[in-house]
Every structure is written in C-alpha cells, then in structure tokens.
Amino acid sequence: MSRLLDCQEYNLLDYLLTINESIYGRWTKLWKEQIKICKVREIDTPYYLAICHEENIEKHGKWSGALARILVSIDENIPVIISALILSTEENYYVDGFSIDRMDGEPLKKYPLPGEDLMIMEAGKWIGGADLRRFYGESDLPPSEKFEDKY
Q: What is the domain partition of the chain in residue ranges?
C-alpha cells in the first residue's frame, strides 16, 4: 500500500538531497519537487522506502544507483546509514528509494533528525557534519558515477 512521506521522512530526505546539491546541481531541485508529492511503499521495513513512479517511468528505467553522499547517525551507539537511490531513464533522473539502515539490523529507537548531528560521507570519507568516525570508520571507496546531462 502506498502513502505519502511523513514529515520526518520528508525532512531527512530533503536534507540528504541538499547535501548532494553541489554534486548534482539542477537535478537536486527537480528531486526536491518530486518528493513533495511522491508516494512511497515500504519494502520489508518502515525504514526502506521505494518511491512509486508512473508506469512509463518504471518501464523505461535503465539503472538505479546511490547518491554520492550519505549521512550517518548513531542510535544507541550503533551506526545508522541514510542513503537514497536514483533511477535513470532516457530523459531524466528520479529519486527511486530512501533507506535508513541501522547496521545491527534492529529497528530504530530514535529517528535521525537532519542537521549538524549527522556525519556526511562521500566515497567512504568524512567530509562534514558531526565527526562520528569512532562509530563508523572511513574506507577507500571509488568516487561515485557522474550523471550525464540529459538536457
């Protein structure tokens, strides 16, 4: 069953898009408009949300990939990874999924709030926000794929 994003989900996803804006530019503005009215469905848990698209978008989707920057929060000393997936079609990119993943697999005790208490990571490295590396260490990941200009 599909539903709208609730307020805390919307605010957190909007913040995640904001921290990715310097990488994706104008796409970010389109995604922010998309999430204002999109419907979502839960995939096995209330913390993994698939965005419901029109049938023609689903049918013409080429690939789905993660945004370059993720957020990390802490819930009872357990790292929580906050990320979003983007779907590519011939003419556009769309937000396709939103995930809040507590690394021990347990349900969240406290929902993460957008802002300076979250760590911002890109390619496995801390680039801003709270320094939570004692909970979630850095790693060497390849840089994320660049999106082609579709205009």
A: 3-129
Tokens of 57: 């978008």
Residue 25: is its pLDDT beyond 80?
Answer: yes
Cβ atoms of residues 19 and 120 within 8 Å = yes
Do the strands 48-52 and 119-122 form a parallel or antiparallel pair, or are they unpaired? unpaired
User: Which residues, in sequence order, are CB contacts of 151 under 8 Å at separation 6+?
Assistant: none
Mean residue pLDDT across the chain: 91
Q: State pLDDT tens for residues 49-108.
A: 999 987 767 666 677 889 999 999 999 999 999 999 999 888 889 999 999 999 999 999
Q: Let me know: does 112 contact 80? Beta carbons within 8 Å.
A: yes
Find out whether 64 and 53 touch, Cβ atoms under 8 Å.
no
* Cα separation, 11 vs 43, whole angstroms: 20
Report CA-CA distances (Å) from 29 to 10, 21, 35, 56.
14, 8, 10, 22
Place of tokens 């021990």: 104
* Cβ 102 vs Cβ 47: under 8 Å: yes
